[in-house]
Amino acid sequence: MARRRKGRDVDGILLLDKPVGRTSNSALQHVRRLFNARKAGHTGSLDPLASGLLPICFGEATKISSWLLHADKRYLVTARSGHETDTGDAEGQPTRYSETGVPPESQLREMLQDLVGAQQQVPPMYSALKKDGRPLYELARAGREVTREARSITVHAMHLLTRADDHLTLSVHVSRGTYIRTLVEDLARSWDGAAHVTMLRRTGVGTHDDAGMVDTAMLEAAAEHGPEALDAYLAPVSTALAHWRCVHLDAAQAAAVTNGQAVSADPADAQPGLVRIMDAVDGFLGIGEISCDGQLQPRRMFTRALR
């Protein structure tokens, strides 16, 4: 008989401000212990060098974590020109130098716009992607370089915030799977230069932004006042999908989809696609998909309506 994991039932999303120097998994485990939560998971790793928004899903929220994982991301990034490194950031060893200086702001802004759009990107060797079961960064540390397939990404926006001598600070909005370190290298190479990341901070994941972030010091202080003080920092699960269409069901329909049965969607809601399923009093029941024939199919349902 499987052993039941200890802890309490907690449902919601914590917008954690991950500090520099800590792995995403370490941050997750620390927070989970503070909440004494039975079930928790994060929605996309940040490098130890990076800081910022790391959404942590508790309990029933873990059922929608894959949609957060696939959401667009937004970052602040500072880059230093002059050389590239093997890791793409300040922790690596220099690999290529260039004496070509940063171009004037007007030219630089044009170069940033040239990087916007759908494109193919080859992941860096220092990444958590796996080759034959081993993370690429392990192979890189062993001095091995392997062929990596390019992946489709989209750069939605890149804006210059500051330019001072050999440092640039940018705001970036990208699709999932985009490596900012590689974007910085591509930008510098567009002026025949070289650059690496010195600061990376994630400011947005899907509909969530950094306005509601909580750091570990705030959580540790709240923990001294008990579970209710901690739970006050949790965002409702539905906020992760706030941009999705909503379908409201009556009691009979709600019972049917909760039991895995399809129901006929209201003609006003019959456009095919993924939707949030809500009950008559705005309880969040789960995720459904409306088919071309107007049937609402349950895709990921909760054990109870969430508020």
Question: What's the arrangement of secondary structure elements?
Answer:
Elements: E1 12-18, H1 24-35, E2 40-42, E3 51-58, H2 65-69, E4 73-81, E5 83-85, E6 94-97, H3 105-114, E7 117-121, E8 130-131, E9 134-135, H4 136-141, E10 151-164, E11 167-174, H5 180-189, E12 195-205, E13 208-209, H6 216-223, H7 227-231, E14 245-248, H8 251-258, E15 263-264, E16 273-278, E17 284-290, E18 295-306
Parallel strand pairs: 3-12, 14-16
Antiparallel strand pairs: 1-3, 2-3, 4-11, 4-12, 5-6, 7-10, 8-9, 10-11, 12-13, 15-18, 16-17, 17-18
Key terms:
3 domains; 307 residues; alpha+beta; Pseudouridine synthase; Archaeosine Trna-guanine Transglycosylase, Chain: A, domain 4; 5-stranded mixed sheet; 9-stranded mixed sheet; globular
Write up what this structure looks like:
By secondary structure, the protein is an alpha+beta fold. It has three domains: 12-71 and 208-238, Pseudouridine synthase; 73-205, 2-Layer Sandwich (Pseudouridine synthase), CATH 3.30.2350; 244-306, Roll (Archaeosine Trna-guanine Transglycosylase, Chain: A, domain 4). Helices cover 21% and strands 36% of the residues. The chain has helices spanning 24-35, 65-69, 105-114, 136-141, 180-189, 216-223, 227-231, 251-258; strands at 12-18, 40-42, 51-58, 73-81, 83-85, 94-97, 117-121, 130-131, 134-135, 151-164, 167-174, 195-205, 208-209, 245-248, 263-264, 273-278, 284-290, 295-306. Strands 1, 2, 3, 4, 7, 10, 11, 12 and 13 form a nine-stranded mixed beta sheet that branches. Strands 14-16-17-18-15 form a five-stranded mixed beta sheet. Strand 17 and strand 18 form a beta hairpin. The longest helix has 12 residues, at 24-35. The radius of gyration is 22 Å and the shape is globular. The relative contact order is 0.16. The mean pLDDT is 92.
